[in-house]
Amino acid sequence: MIKNIRTGSKISRAARHMLERVNIKAILGGNLTLMVITTSLISHSSNASLAYSITDEKNVLPVVQAPLTTEVSLRLPLNTIKINQKYSWYHPGVDLGAKIGEPIYPIAKGTVEISEFSKFGYGNSIVITHANGLKSLYAHLSRIDVRPGDEVNPTNPIGLVGSTGRSTGPHLHLEVSQDEKRLNPLQYLGSVSSY
């Protein structure tokens, strides 16, 4: 049976007195250090036994040579990045300043869903569908080099920077969404490069 401990009780005073004298930080720090040392010793000993079994004369594994291929899976849409306007609740993408005619690349491989021209809004624009519900939109292009249904990859340009539609100067307007939810492209592409 647990009794309520009142503030002025003997048990409360004794516990308070004991906790005031004990350095809790030192105890926690000591325990944490002990855990780190123990973990490192355990992992080193298990790796040593694994290495021994692999290099044991009776159990030599053959060396296999295979070609190493790399594939670009995520990239910045331009070779040079200059941010003119950032993402916000009223601006659902980023504006990347560039010279007219600079090549634009898809951020990842995918399929062109839309390539169209509008006098207003986005001007020449492209929408690409990528894996896992990801989509990217590229707007204000001076030229579109792809059509709906085309398969694209990050190494081949899809168009050129321009200033078509509702634009105040040459730039690329880039939007990124996942499962129809708009994302900040700078956070999504942050793993590729620091801005």
In short:
This protein has 195 residues and is of the alpha+beta class. The protein has helices spanning 10-21, 24-55, 185-188, and strands spanning 83-85, 94-97, 103-104, 110-116, 124-129, 134-144, 151-152, 159-161, 171-178, 181-183.
Topology (elements, then pairings):
Elements: H1 10-21, H2 24-55, E1 83-85, E2 94-97, E3 103-104, E4 110-116, E5 124-129, E6 134-144, E7 151-152, E8 159-161, E9 171-178, E10 181-183, H3 185-188
Antiparallel strand pairs: 1-2, 2-9, 3-8, 4-5, 4-7, 5-6, 6-8, 6-9, 9-10
Structural commentary:
The protein has 195 residues and is an alpha+beta fold. It has 2 domains: 10-59; 83-191, Glucose Permease (Domain IIA) (Distorted Sandwich), CATH 2.70.70.10. Helices cover 25% and strands 25% of the residues. The protein has helices at residues 10-21, 24-55, 185-188, and strands spanning 83-85, 94-97, 103-104, 110-116, 124-129, 134-144, 151-152, 159-161, 171-178, 181-183. Strands 1, 2, 3, 4, 5, 6, 7, 8, 9 and 10 form a 10-stranded antiparallel β-sheet that branches. The protein is elongated and about 80 Å long. The termini are far apart.
Give short descriptive properties of this protein.
195 residues; alpha+beta; Glucose Permease (Domain IIA); ten-stranded antiparallel beta sheet; 3 helices; 25% helix; elongated
Q: What's the overall geometry?
A: elongated
- Give the fraction of residues assigned to helices: 10-25%
Rounded radius of gyration (Å):
29 Å
CATH fold label of the largest domain: Glucose Permease (Domain IIA)
H/E series: HHEEEEEEEEEEH
User: What integer is the average pLDDT?
Assistant: 79
What is the count of β-strands? 10
Number of domains: 2
What structural class do the secondary elements suggest? alpha+beta
Uncertain segments = 44-55
Measure the end-to-end span.
Answer: 61 Å
Q: So, CATH architecture of the largest domain?
A: Distorted Sandwich
Largest sheet: 10 strands, antiparallel
